[in-house]
Amino acid sequence: MAVLKLYHDKLQHNYNHLDRVFKQHSIDWGIVTKLLCGNELFLKEVLALGVQEIHDSRVTNLKAIKKVAPHVQTVYIKPAPKQSIPDIIQFADVSFQTEYEIIKLLSDEAVRQQKQHKIIIMIEMGDLREGVMGDDLVNFYEKVFELPNISVIGLGANFNCLHGVMPTRDKLIQLSLYKQIIEAKFNRKIPWVSGGTSVTIPLLFTHQMPQGINHFRIGEALFFGLNLFTGETFEGMYDDVFELFTEIIELTEKPMIPSGMLAENPSGESFEVDESLYGKTSHRAILDVGLLDINPKFLIPKDESISVIGASSDMLVVELGDNKENYKVGDMLRFGLRYMGALSILNSRYIAKEIVR
């Protein structure tokens, strides 16, 4: 059976490293746990790091977090669907919002539940996912400030989430200026400018981060140590907090070219024949994961001699070449994961999850 392992020591190391960096820059931060898909075993591991703030995009995950750690501040990080509003007020201390109609409903529900709900208003900064347009911001805030049981604690923005627009010093200065405009016009303090995500971290190291940005939400950098500007691992961090172990369920020396009339496979892919491979063979292994669990392009074989050939719904085919490592049926092959691959694996109920200490 395939198993996803999380290495405790590497996770703790990455957390401590990031915490030092943010404290040096007087930045508050929370951990984004949407990658974990509500897995209670892994959530407990993250909460044990000493985290005081957790961000997630699923209310059910926030409910699980509140069950384990009621003291932790929970943040719902996407605009709220109407049907989720009662649960958001119950299980999220803070939410990201962009629509006045929804904030009004949150206000009404917060009054019913006798709670004060905090919000961060997201501003459109070019990536064209969620966000209030800058020209509409003053009028938007003017209406929101009047709502009972709603406290605006910040404004924020996302980068690189849809169209790949990267954060820059100029964009972050602009985000900070929005806060100054709102505070000056309404004589209201906004504690946070939440312009920081994993993609923004490199600006700290290149001294391009404006002082006004004082809140970060971090997921990918914690779990993968990835510098999204360079594609490399941040110095002093681990890129393999997670590893996937998959069992070889067949291993046979086979031709490298399929035989017979070719058509599209069930994934809509057409195989292109490389005539130079006619008559050649290699050792091919079938592993006990498939497209139901992960897209093969997000797998990184730890043995560099292994090539991923493709996958069907529940089997993955890899090429072992001459099989110099003498792999055999029943052996486990190790893979690193890219973020979207780990997300798929964590969302799969067919993959075991395990902590390594």
From TrEMBL:
**Superkingdom field:** Bacteria
Q: Does the keyword Cell inner membrane apply?
A: no
Q: Give the GO molecular function terms.
A: alanine racemase activity; pyridoxal phosphate binding
The Alanine racemase N-terminal domain sits at 9-225
Q: Which InterPro entries match?
A: Ala_racemase, Ala_racemase_N, PLP-binding_barrel
Q: Which Pfam families match?
A: Ala_racemase_N (PF01168)
Q: Which cofactor does it need?
A: pyridoxal 5'-phosphate
Which keywords annotate this record?
Isomerase, Pyridoxal phosphate
- Keyword set includes Isomerase: yes
A cellular-component GO term for this protein = cytosol
From the Swiss-Prot or TrEMBL record, give the protein name: Alanine/ornithine racemase family PLP-dependent enzyme
The organism named in the record is Pontibacter cellulosilyticus
